[in-house]
Amino acid sequence: MxxxxxxxxxAIRFTVxxxxxxxxxxxxxxxxxxxxxxxxxxxxxxxxxQLQDDAQLRWYQxxxxxRRGFCGTCGSFLFWDPIGGAxxxxxxxxFDGPTQxxxxxHIFTDDKGDxxxxxxxxxxxxH
Length: 127
Description:
Blueprint: E1 2-6, E2 13-17, E3 24-26, H1 29-35, E4 39-45, E5 49-53, E6 57-61, E7 66-71, E8 77-82, E9 87-91, E10 105-107, E11 124-125
Parallel strand pairs: 3-10, 10-11
Antiparallel strand pairs: 1-2, 2-5, 3-4, 4-9, 6-7, 7-8, 8-9
Family: Belongs to the Gfa family.
Pfam family, one: GFA
InterPro entries: CENP-V/GFA, Mss4-like_sf
């Protein structure tokens, strides 16, 4: 089983092998500012994530521990990549077609915007 995905303009394409885990929604200030709202993603072991087209992939060093990958052409925010980590977070919205997953958790809810409420009953991690 594989899942295909891309940025908005198609300059970056990727494949994830195997089943997708349940995603989380991050409400931290960085994710909200970069994505425009909260950011839903899944953590994928690096050996399960293959990039087919990545000439336009750009990295923003968001902190000493994390970089964020985006398309240099269309600006799509695709990856959250902890330096030295075993997995990369991949944006749920970048997948082509159904993912057969459901959101499982909200994280960094202390940072959420004041313009929305979290009312889906899923667990919430404040930090």
